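The methods section describes the discrete structure representation at length, but only in general terms. What matters is that the chain and its backbone geometry are given together, residue for residue. For illustration, here is how one protein appears when written out as sequence plus structure tokens:
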Amino acid sequence: MQNVKFKDMTPQIYWDAEVEPDQIRRLLHGEIDRVGHIDRINLYRRLLMTYDWYTLLNLIPSDRLREALSEPVLKGIHPASLRDRYLYARNVLFG
């Protein structure tokens, strides 16, 4: 996704924290492990609870999608019906 679009989306993801969009992008791409109190698990949860599936596919690098749908991420997804959709997607994609 282009940096301009990602920059515009960062306040929607972390409306309750001041974070630099480039730092969030670097975290998402695995270039760094955390940004302040935010780790990748927390970032994935926020993304999954904020955006629709097709936006997520544009935001999350394909080599990070398995991690984004991992058990540590999904166990914190609410409501349960949303978590169930991502569990289904994980099973379809990764077996």
Notes: The two ends are 27 Å apart (CA to CA). The chain has one domain: 3-94.
